[in-house]
Design goal:
This protein is of the alpha+beta class. 37% of the residues lie in helices and 7% in strands. The longest helix has 25 residues. The termini are far apart. Bound molecules: zinc ion. Zinc ion (ZN) binds next to strand 1.
Amino acid sequence: MRRIWIVVVTLVLGAGLLAAPAAAGEPPIKLPASPRGLKAPVTLPDGVDPASPYLPQVSCSPVDMAGVLKLRNLVLKTYGEGGKGGISRGCTDGLSEHSEGRAWDWMVDVHDKSEKAAAANFLSWVTRKDGRNARRLGIMYVIYNKKIWSVYNTKGGWRSNSGHTDHVHVSFSWNGARGNVSFWTGKVGRIDYGPCARFKGTYAARTSTPRATACATPGPLLAKTSLGQRAYGRTGATVKKAQRLLDVPMTSRFDKATWTAVRRYQRTHDIPRTGVLDHPTWASLSPADVTYRAVEGYTRDEAIAYGIDHYSDGVIAPGRAARPVVFLQTALGLPRTVRNGFYGSETRAAVKQVQKRAGLTADGIVRGEEWKALRAQQG
Ligand SMILES: [Zn+2]
């Protein structure tokens, strides 16, 4: 028994000496030791951007993001090989950063000698030195020839994946996708956790501002409908129904015109601007199809009384999505189509009016005084 152990230990140690680093998986193709890399348009700082954690798709958008476009242009210009490939695509095929314009497919075929050589140079340059250049560009992971390498698991090296023999897939973190990384700005970036979903089971609304902390847990849906969630790229009668209600061409395809119309509708009805036909949007667009509302049957006076009793000691601030906001929206006398529990710009404008009339600071934050003012103004 002891002799077997000695043999095993010797073999493991021997293998470790030969294949350094021991834990790293082999690359998908042979990578050059001194690769031709990309040249930054700015002077690079000494520090390197932090490695982003895996940040999976949370939103749905047909817009190619700025940092992704910049990298595509530079890669094509530097190597002069392969097809341009796609960035954004529909939100119909499961989780993918492509669905939010945060990934790029560089069409370089592993069976084409010069394309493969270009891919080898790029991948070597991106992944070498513990992913230093990936961090500078905000690249989250790359996939090629059935292998994946990720900046959040550099010790794992190249791990098994599927397909991708005719293109290199490049996924970006949010700071990389926005272009907020040292490779483009000359300043070390921070981790950007991206947008947050407001209601459970919905996509996140896109924001232009970076976020340094993780998302709060989304609140429960405050209204449900018999209609299914529909996002960019989907086709069918349910999409057509929305197009009729939104007064856009009835193509039955969730196209860019529909996406724009959904976002516009959401903005004017205090619905998180997901660009998706989700339950909050359907409940507003098509009240006849509502099957559940968390808050139902309160008159304006009753909602004010409820607010005074339950929320006087708390604070309701813009951006919140929760049951108290429905009471606030009802107490403010907002139209039914806006009373969805998300505190957006319509609600804020109404709160500020109440505050101004009552001589309170018009900051949109609802405390005990605001509930009292609502009652006084309702008379
Ligand atoms: Zn891809």
